[in-house]
Amino acid sequence: MFAEFLNRLTAPAPAPLGAEDARLALAALLVRVARTDGQYDPEERRRIDRILVTRYGLTAPAAEDLRARAETLEAEAPDTVRFTRAIKDSVAYEDRAAVIEALWSVVLADGVRDDEENALLRLVASLLGISDMDSNLARQRAEAAR
After folding, report:
1. Residue 13 backbone zone (phi > 0: left; psi -120 to 50: alpha; other: beta)
2. What is the spatial distance between Cα 136 and Cα 142, in angstroms, rounded to a whole number?
3. Is residue 109 within 8 Å of residue 102, measured between CB atoms?
4. Co-chaperone DjlA N-terminal domain: from which residue to which, for each copy (predicted)?
């Protein structure tokens, strides 16, 4: 199921994703960031679910289902650089910009910001075309919302 999706996403000239596929790709990116520190704890999963409920207007069970599919996709997705660049090429800027704050929210969910997470967020923001300044502002908003 995900092999065809990943082939489309990482094609040399990917077509823009439909709304459902964009949700799945961005949810997988949330999962990838949550797993960066080697721990994927219940608070991070709950935070991802809340983000999906709020961002996409999903019910709690629908958000859990999307996260579960995203977990599978993330495990099969190529390296972060190719995966994120593919998202940039196929997801509208507004969606990419808004997800940075959500990514920071996931990083902050366990109350610990480690160097690996910081480095990954800097890389992801850059690959998504989001400036360091905008990413920093997104982090501040995520911290204030905690």
Report:
1. beta
2. 10
3. no
4. 23-140
- Asked if 55 and 110 count as a contact pair (C-beta separation under 8 A), the reply is no
Q: What range defines the domain where residue 113 resides?
A: 18-145
pTM: 0.82
Long-range contacts of 57-66 (CB under 8 A, 24+ apart): 66/23, 66/24, 66/27
Cβ–Cβ under 8 Å, residues 47 and 110: no
Q: How many other CB atoms are found less than 10 A from the CB of residue 141?
A: 13
Please write the tens of the pLDDT for every residue from 30-71.
999 999 888 899 999 999 999 999 989 999 999 999 999 999
Q: What is the CATH number of the domain that holds 45?
A: 1.10.3680.10
As to burial, measured by CB atoms within 10 angstroms (0-12 exposed, 13-18 middle, 19+ buried), residue 16 is: exposed
| Interhelix angle 2-9/19-35, nearest 10 degrees | 90
Q: Around Cβ 37, how many Cβ atoms within 10 Å?
A: 18
